[in-house]
Specification:
- This is Mitochondrial transcription rescue factor 1 C-terminal domain-containing protein.
- The chain is an alpha+beta fold and about 200 residues long.
- The protein is built from 6 helices and 6 strands, in the order H-H-H-H-E-H-H-E-E-E-E-E.
- It has a 6-stranded antiparallel β-sheet.
- It is rod-shaped, with a radius of gyration of 33 Å.
- The chain has a domain of about 100 residues: Structural Genomics Hypothetical 15.5 Kd Protein In mrcA-pckA Intergenic Region, Chain A (Roll).
- The mean pLDDT is about 75.
């Protein structure tokens, strides 16, 4: 880093010195050419290549582009709110595959071991049905339920955490999944429930 800074300083000073020498060498000729509006045939650019430091260039977006991005983000948020049920939270996650275990891990915010324990205890349901493979691939519109416990007030009701898959988009080598998450949702017992 120090070496690059030193080289940049030397290059700038060399360019400045060459400009100064060219101006001092032919003061009359340069004054006449500047008054006539003509370009100098022996300008500084012919003698040395000027160094342009890229690190000083701005990479900021223009204000117009930023406003357009903000408008499109607001429209997307409105669409998210319309798609999701009332009272649920909409999140976007990026996963490597669309398997049940990876989406459940990211959506429920649990470790893979906890998801496996719930799977082997038959506490995970897809669209109300038992799951026999944790490698099952999910589709748009699928509901994943994680059974927490029976309701204390009414034993015919279950308390679950539910994920609804709203959309899937392929981005590079990963899948961006939009989920609607409901926590502590009270639902009726499943027909084949063992609890």
């Amino acid at each position: 880093m120090l070496f690059k800074a030193t080289v940049n300083i030397i290059r700038r000073s060399v360019c400045y010195n060459v400009r100064t020498l060219c101006r001092l060498r032919d003061p009359l000729q340069s004054n006449l050419l500047l008054c006539n509006g003509g370009a100098k045939p022996n300008s500084v650019q012919n003698y040395c290549s000027l160094y342009v430091a890229k690190r000083f260039k701005s990479k900021k977006k223009k204000a117009v582009n930023i406003k357009k991005d903000e408008d499109s983000d607001e429209e997307k948020e409105k669409d998210d709110e319309e798609e999701a049920p009332i009272g649920s939270k909409v999140i976007k996650i990026k996963v490597s595959s669309i398997r049940l275990d990876t989406i459940s891990k990211a959506g429920f915010g649990m470790s893979r071991n906890k998801i496996e324990e719930a799977f082997y205890a038959s506490k995970i349901r897809i669209n109300g049905n038992k799951v026999f493979k944790k490698s099952k691939e999910m589709k748009i519109g699928d509901e994943i339920d994680l059974i927490l416990h029976q309701s204390m007030d009414n034993p015919e009701l279950l308390v679950v955490n539910r994920i609804v898959i709203l959309s899937m988009d392929l981005i590079n080598d990963r899948v961006q999944v939009k989920l609607s998450i409901d926590r502590n949702l009270l639902i009726e017992h499943y027909e084949d429930s063992h609890l």
